[in-house]
């Protein structure tokens, strides 16, 4: 991870010298009206970005697991419900769903919904369809013999899933789960359009004030790059921790 991030950072001087543009990296140093530096203002966006992404990932996994179970049923109408949900949700752009949740759901349900929870709900719904497919594939990858062994022990369906099937399926689906978390991290940038002060929103606000979009958005790229490389490294470490020894 560190080598890739270092390579990108080392490429910045080369990028700076490929044209006559005068880079104004000093934009990260000036103080805001509250006495905080622009750099600190940008970095503070990590909090909302990480909170929204983590909560959305946890809720999407729970909802996706519930949606996946009907796909494993022998009843056609349950499988049909699963397919309808998955296909409909996957067909809606995340930004459109986010706007509908933020502006439409409070009107429809007569509730108050702030931008943070609107972002979490929208990302959860959007991601749950993909999570359902990940869980379905992981559960179906567990061999039939494991199901039969669990049934021979007298376990009911839910005990079999909880104690035997899902732990094995989790090893299978950990890489795609990591990919989906990276996807949520990137899609979380869309919550900036409804006013949440995440990394992207803060960068946009600073661009309006400082008129140096190239420098600020380049730094935004580095922020997301560092965050996503950190997540990727954590997933690889977890894969090694739970891997079954080959000997």
UniProtKB/TrEMBL annotation:
Q: Does the keyword Membrane apply?
A: yes
UniProt-listed SUPFAM superfamilies: MetI-like
Example of a GO MF term = transmembrane transporter activity
**ABC transmembrane type-1 domain span:** 46-235
Please give the start and end residues of each transmembrane region: 50-72, 84-103, 115-135
Has UniProt tagged this entry with the keyword Membrane?
Answer: yes
Q: Which residues form the signal peptide?
A: none
This protein's membrane topology, according to the annotation, is: Multi-pass membrane protein
Mind listing the UniProt keywords for this protein, alphabetically?
Amino-acid transport, Cell membrane, Membrane, Transmembrane, Transmembrane helix, Transport
- What is the annotated localization of this protein? Cell inner membrane; Cell membrane
Gene3D superfamilies membership: MetI-like
InterPro entries according to UniProt: AA_ABC_transptr_permease_3TM, ArtM/GltK/GlnP/TcyL/YhdX-like, MetI-like, MetI-like_sf
Q: Which GO biological process categories is it annotated with?
A: amino acid transport
User: One Gene Ontology cellular component annotation?
Assistant: ATP-binding cassette (ABC) transporter complex
NCBIfam families for the chain = HEQRo_perm_3TM (TIGR01726)
The protein's job, in short, is: Part of the binding-protein-dependent transport system for glutamine; probably responsible for the translocation of the substrate across the membrane.
Give the family from UniProt.
Answer: Belongs to the binding-protein-dependent transport system permease family. HisMQ subfamily.
Name it.
Putative glutamine transport system permease protein GlnP
Q: Which organism is it from?
A: Vibrio thalassae
Q: What is the lineage of its organism?
A: Bacteria, Pseudomonadati, Pseudomonadota, Gammaproteobacteria, Vibrionales
């Amino acid at each position: 991870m560190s080598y890739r991030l270092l390579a990108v950072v080392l490429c910045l001087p080369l990028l700076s010298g490929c044209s006559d543009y005068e880079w104004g990296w000093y934009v990260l140093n000036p103080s805001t009206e509250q006495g905080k530096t622009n750099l600190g203002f940008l970095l503070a966006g990590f909090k909302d970005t990480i909170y929204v992404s983590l909560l959305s990932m946890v809720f999407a996994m729970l909802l996706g697991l519930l949606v996946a179970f009907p796909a494993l049923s022998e009843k056609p109408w349950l499988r049909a419900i699963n397919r309808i949900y998955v296909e409909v949700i996957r067909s809606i752009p995340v930004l459109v769903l986010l706007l509908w949740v933020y502006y439409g759901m409070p009107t429809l349900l007569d509730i108050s919904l702030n931008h943070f929870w609107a972002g979490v709900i929208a990302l959860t719904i959007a991601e749950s369809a993909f999570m359902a497919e990940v869980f379905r594939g992981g559960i179906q990858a567990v061999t039939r013999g494991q199901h039969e062994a669990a049934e021979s022990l007298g376990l009911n369906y839910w005990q079999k899933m909880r104690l035997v099937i899902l732990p094995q399926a989790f090893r299978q689906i950990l890489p795609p789960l990591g990919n989906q978390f990276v996807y949520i991290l990137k899609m979380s940038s869309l919550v900036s359009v409804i006013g949440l002060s995440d990394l992207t929103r803060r960068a946009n606000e600073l661009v309006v004030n400082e008129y140096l979009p190239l420098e600020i958005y380049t730094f935004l790229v580095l922020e997301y790059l560092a965050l996503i490389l950190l997540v990727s490294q954590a997933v690889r470490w977890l894969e090694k921790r739970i891997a079954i020894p080959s000997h």
